[in-house]
Write a structure and sequence with these properties.
By secondary structure, this protein is α/β, with parallel strands linked by helices. Helix content is 16%, strand content 35%. The strands form two sheets. It has a four-stranded mixed β-sheet, covered by helices on one side. A four-stranded mixed β-sheet has the order 5-8-7-6.
Length: 136
């Protein structure tokens, strides 16, 4: 077996219909920091200190097509780690009523008998984000 030639994700880019609303979600609801901007692109860069996301504003938001996992190749969802079950529940309470968030399901085991809990929601603009605890 050979050694992997990469070491984790450097950053992840998401195309979004509303750059300001998506940036505000990550910073206000999740406590991330905006670490840069590229107005001419336009893009914002946000980070939780471990993960950095590049958020790109699509050119024509009203004509943008939402991702359909049965028809499109690409990012199905972004999964972010949460340290504990209590932290996951607290995060769920915080984001479920955030403007533009649509909860797909409440915190639950990843599969029957799993110690890993998770929930999925669509953030403002429709990108699906999963929040999951690490195995204990």
């Amino acid at each position: 077996m050979s050694e992997a030639l990469t070491r984790g994700i450097h950053h992840l880019g998401l195309a979004v219909p509303d750059l300001e609303a998506t940036t505000a979600f990550f910073c206000s609801a999740l406590g991330w920091k905006e670490v840069g901007r590229k107005p001419e692109y336009p893009a914002a860069f946000v980070s939780d200190g471990s993960v950095t996301l590049t958020l790109w504003q699509v050119a024509e938001p009203t004509r943008a097509v939402a991702f359909d996992r049965r028809k499109n190749v690409g990012l199905h969802h972004l999964a972010l780690a949460v340290p504990t079950h209590v932290a996951l529940q607290d995060l769920f309470e915080r984001v479920r009523d955030y403007p533009g968030v649509v909860v797909e399901f409440e915190p639950q085991p990843m599969r029957p008998g799993s110690d890993v809990l998770h929930f999925i929601c669509a953030i403002p603009g429709g990108v699906r984000v999963e929040f999951a605890t690490r195995a204990i």
